[in-house]
Every structure is written in C-alpha cells, then in structure tokens.
Specification:
This protein is mainly α. It contains eleven helices and no strands. α6 crosses α11.
C-alpha cells in the first residue's frame, strides 16, 4: 500500500470532522488499528478498503492515491474547466495547455479566497511572489530565444545572482505575516467545501498540489 493511502485516509476522517474512535467503530475495527492504518504502520486488507470507500463515499482509486477525482475518473486536459477569460487554445503541445489550465485555475481559487478576506497586504504579497516566479520563467525563455535583455530593467548580473528569488522570499515572509496578523474570518478551505464551491477548478488545484508533493517527497528521500 503506498504512502498516499494513509494520508488520504486520515484527511477524509478529518474532513468528516470525526474522531478516530468514532470512525473506527463505523468501520468495524479498533481505534488502535485505524491509527496504524492512518500512520502507515500497517496495511489493511481489501475488505477494509471497500468499507472505507463506502463510508467516505470515494472510489478505491482516490483512497489509494491513484486518482485526484473522488469518483476515480482520470482528469484529462480537455475536461478541466478553464478560469481564464480568453480561454484560447495554446499553440503547441497538449502538455502546455494542461499546465496553463492547472495554474490559471489554481491562481483563480487562491485570489478569490484572499479577496473574500479583504486582506489587501496578503493579496499584494501573493501577487508579488507569483509575479516573481513568472518573471524568472519568462526571462529565461527570452534569453534562450536570443532576446535582447535590455528589455528588462534589472541587469543580467543581478538576475544571474538570483535577486528575483530574494524578492520572492521577502514577499513570502510579508504574506505569511499578513495572514498571521489577520483578525477577520476566513472562508472555508476544507477539501469538501472547495470541491463544492469551485467544482472543476478544485480538481486543478488538487493536481497542482499533488504534483508538488510528489516532487518534494523525492527531495526528502
């Protein structure tokens, strides 16, 4: 059983807002055994997987981390809702089109949630951070394509010294501080609420997060 199973099993219970004792009773096992399953200490049999799928109303593929869709469907590029206004087709590969949709949809959800808090500093700093990432990706492409870097006011020397990443780090610090100091009410951000409110967009967000988690886990190994 892969590590995604224990993570998803635990998240589904937390999403449901119930204790391990209550979930274990509903699933017909002891609390200690459920704890072992959720922490990846022991692997369950197929009978438990089937019961857990019925209890949490998800597919086995979702529970096992094989799909990001709760019903087990594979997400294709053409099926993703596109939150961009133009929704124009990108020239080139399907991969480029898919990545564009995933990122645009995720950014749309992020700024919608931030906008509802009216936390202007958090909005500004998240924008600064993401702008820095786009700036770097585009400038490297611009350079590789033979463009004149005089197009940018930041000198190539400073860019090569990773000054934009330093600016992004500062924006991230200010963003975290703005969230920490915020005293208003946040919109619900549990996976079920996001899925209900943003529907197709939440699938994109889940894909972005899953892909990032997979890359990071390889660094931790």
């Amino acid at each position: 059983m892969n590590a995604d199973f224990s993570r998803v099993l635990s998240l589904l219970r937390q999403e449901k807002g119930i204790s391990q004792r209550r979930a274990a009773a509903a699933l017909g096992i002891s609390q200690a055994l459920l704890s072992h399953y959720e922490n990846g200490i022991r692997e369950p049999g197929l009978n438990f997987v089937a019961r857990a799928c019925d209890y949490y109303h998800v597919s086995a593929d979702y529970l096992l981390g094989r799909s990001l869709s709760r019903d087990g469907a594979v997400i294709e590029a053409e099926e993703l809702e596109d939150a961009s206004e133009g929704r124009e087709d990108l020239k080139g590969s399907v991969m480029a089109k898919l990545q564009k949709k995933l990122l645009v949809n995720t950014v749309t959800v992020l700024f919608d949630l931030l906008g509802r808090t009216n936390n202007k500093e958090a909005v500004a700093q998240s924008g600064a951070y993401l702008s820095g990432a786009l700036y770097q990706m585009f400038r490297l492409l611009y350079r590789a394509a033979g463009g004149n870097e005089g197009y940018f006011s930041t000198g190539s020397g400073s860019f090569n010294m990773d000054i934009v990443s330093a600016d992004m780090t500062l924006a991230r610090v200010k963003y975290a501080k703005a969230l920490e100091e915020y005293r208003g009410e946040y919109p619900p951000v549990d996976s079920q609420s996001l899925a209900e409110e943003y529907q197709g967009l939440s699938q994109s967000m889940a894909q972005v997060f899953h892909s990032t988690d997979e890359r990071v886990k390889k660094l931790e190994e």
